[in-house]
Amino acid sequence: MIIEKTKLAFQKLLPATEPEPPAVEDPGEEVEEEKGKKAKVKKEPRQNGVIECDYAVHGYHLDAQVAPEQLIEAVTIVDEAEFFIESITGVDWIKEGQIEVVYDFSRYDFDTCRVVIRTRVNRDNPVVPTITTIYAGANWHERETHDFFGIKFDGHPHLIPLLLPEDADFHPLLKDFKA
Amino acid sequence: MSSPIQLQTDETFVLNVGPQHPATHGVLRVKMEMNGEYIVNAETVIGYIHRMHEKMGENKTYPQYLMNLSRMDYLGALGYSHGHVLVVEKAAGIEVPERAEYIRAIMVELNRIASHLFWFGAFVMDLGGFSPLMYALQDREYILDMLEAVTGSRLTYCYFRFGGLYNDIDDDFIDAARRFIPRMRKSLIKYDKLVTGNIIFRKRLEGNALLSKETCRKYGASSAVARGSGINFDVRKNEPYSVYPDFDFDVPVYHEGDSLARYMVRMKEMEQSLRIIEQGLDKLPDGPIMPKKKPKLIKPPAGDYYQAVETARGSFGVRLVSDGTKTPYRLKLRSPTYSNMHLFDESCRGMMIMDALAFMGSLDLVIPEIDR
Description:
The structure holds two protein chains of two kinds.
Chain A (H helix, E strand, L loop, with lengths): L1 H12 L16 H14 L5 E4 L2 H4 L3 E5 L4 H10 L3 E10 L4 E9 L8 E8 L4 E3 L8 H12 L2 E3 L25
Parallel strand pairs in A: 2-5, 6-7
Antiparallel strand pairs in A: 1-2, 3-4, 4-5
Helix pairs in contact in A: 1-4
Chain B lengths: L12 E5 L2 E2 L4 E2 L1 E7 L2 E8 L7 H7 L17 H16 L5 H29 L4 H21 L8 E2 L2 E2 L5 H26 L2 H7 L7 H7 L3 H5 L7 H4 L20 H25 L19 E9 L2 E9 L7 E5 L1 H12 L5 H10 L4 H5 L1
Antiparallel strand pairs in B: 1-4, 2-3, 4-5, 6-7, 8-9, 9-10
C-alpha cells in the first residue's frame, strides 16, 4: 500500500521527537478528536512529523509537516513515488506570526493516496526553497503563492507577478491586507 | 532602390498572441519567440481577468459565496459548485438527501455535455471548420433550456445549496431529458461522420503535440489531457464522491498522447455522461431535496478540509481552512485548466504556430477559470 510506504519514508525523514498524536481513525471518537485537535492548536504549535488522517473527514490521507530545509527531501519522496502535483498554496496564521505553505500531491493510479506537505515560515521573512527543479509544474503555483502571500521561493527561475498586475507590490491574501 | 532586408537564418522575433485573439478563447496572452514559422520559446501570460475569488471567499459567509463558483468556469459551472458544496457539507457535517445527490449528478453531467459541445464546436472552428459549431450550439441550446427551466439561469447557475438544491426537478424536465438522450446519441454519430472521419481534420491532429505521461505528472494535468496520454485518471472513479459509485460508466482512455486523442476522449466522454444521466433518471429516488435538520448558520469546526471533483475540465479541488467562524479562514480553489495550460509553454517548443494553436484548442481552455 502506497499510504504505508509513503508514511514510512516520511517517518524516516521526520523522526518523531515525542509520541505522535493518534491518527483520527475511530469514527466513534471523531467528535472528541476534533475537539482535542482544536484545543491543541490553541495550546501549542504542531510538531513536525507525519500524521495519517481520516480521508472521509479531511479529504486526504497523509499530512506531513516539515521544516523548510527538509522540503526538498520531502518533495523528492513523493516525486519518486510517482505522485502528481495538485497545487501549492499558503495560509496566513497572523496570530502566530507564521505563514504556512501547503503542497498538495495526489496519484493517477487506483492506489489512492493524497499527501499534504506543509511547512511554516516566519511572517517577517518568508523564504522557502523552490521545488521547480523537481516538479516543473510548480512554477506557476509558486508564482501565484508569491503574488498572494509574498512568500519568496528561493531559486525560482522567474518569480514575477502572475495573476496580479505586473507592477503589484501588495499581497492580497495576507490577513492584514487593506484594499 | 534599396536592397531588400536580409533576415539572418538564426534570427528570431517575438510574436504576441493575444490578449485579444480568437484562438485564445478569452483574454489569454502568449509571447512566442519565433524562428520563421517555428516556435523557439513561449511564455504564457495570464491574469488579465483575475478577480481574486479566494479573497472574496474569506470575506463572505458560506452561503454568500455560492454564486462565485459559477463565475469561474462559465461553460461547466455546476461541476465547480458541486465541489464547493461538497467540501462545506463534509466540514460542517450536513447530510444530503439521496434525491438531491442524484439530481446534482444528472445536472452536472448535463452541464458537462454542454461544455464539451461548446468545446467541440470551438475546437473545430479553430481548425477552420465553421459548421460543426452551429450543430453543437443547437444541441447545447437544448441543454441550456432544460437547465434554465430548473435552475433559473443559463450559464452562471446558483443551483446547489448546502445540504441540497434550490429547486426540485419536475416531470417536464424528466421528459425533456429523456427525449434529449436519444437525440444526443444521434448527434454524436453525426459529429463522428462529419468531423472525426474528416481526413483534413485527422491529418492536422494526428501526432500533434505529443504529451508524455511524465509531462502530465510533473504539471498535474487532468481530464482529457491526462486521459489522452494513457493515464486512467478520473476523480469520479479514483476517489468516488457523491452518488457516482452507483453509476455504471467507463472512463475513455487513449494512449497516443496527441491532440486527436484528447479530442476522442472528450467525444467518448459525452456518451458516458449520457449513460450516467439515463441511469440517474431511472434510479431517481423520491424524497426531499433539502435535509430536515440543517444548521441555520453554517460554522464548520476548525480544521483543514479538501475535496476534489471531476469537472468538465478536469480535477477541481477546494481546500477549506476553517477557524470555526461563519466565514472561511482560507479557501483555495485548485482549477484544472491552470495546470493543463501550464504545460503549453514547455510542450509547444519546436512546433509550427498553427500546430500550437491546434494544441491550445485541444486543451479546452476557459480563461476565467485559469485566472479565478
